[in-house]
Amino acid sequence: MPLAVEAGLWGLLSGSALVLGAAVAWWSRIPVRIIAAIMAFGSGVLISALSFELMDEALRRGGFAATAAGFIAGAAAYTAANVAISRRGAKHRKRSGDQQPEDAGSGLAIAVGALLDGIPESTVIGVSLLAGQGVSLVAVIAIFLSNVPEGLSSAAGMKKAGRSALYVFGVWTAIAVVSGLASLVGYLAFDGASPAIVAATEAVAAGAILAMIADTMIPEAFAATHDYSGFITVSGFLAAFALSKVFGA
What we know:
Elements: H1 3-27, H2 32-90, H3 106-128, H4 137-160, H5 165-190, H6 195-225, H7 229-248
Helix pairs in contact: 1-3, 1-4, 1-5, 2-3, 2-4, 2-6, 2-7, 3-4, 3-5, 3-6, 4-7
């Protein structure tokens, strides 16, 4: 199987967790505190993955300067885009309570916001194949685990806001497909690129992911779990750290 196709399939797999989470939230009544706890766990998983997978690999490939520049650029780009779409109705896109707006105009912003959150993660999967040692299973598992609570939280909020099943599952299925395409493009676009360029790309994704965690995932986690969110996040971090040692050994 061509590596580009493999990259796309891994990205599709990680993105499918959004649909899985949305399905659980749509057909089950899950307490907000449980969703928030899962979000906290997913935050820890992603923080660990970007620390020990993305930033470590970027530093090894391209050195500190390219890694630092990419990291800051990714965070800045995500923040600017997030501010823009938040002002158009997507500020609470990951919230599972009553914070999501019911006006139709916010629907596109929520979908764009979900794409903004998912594309950096998926690109990382494609780029990880460039090392020639297979996909980073830690990255795939971490992104899959973090996507489940995102699908849970957003779908629960969308349902409370009165959105239809067609809308909710249409959004998440489309984003899962785009996630696969982003992984494929991530591989094709940087195949043959210099180590510094690949390192900067990994760091850009890491910066965007960390900014996304701080802006959208942790607020949802803290909103309901309060004093327990820190411990749950640390548990997610440790789980992903253990996975990185098992699969990275």
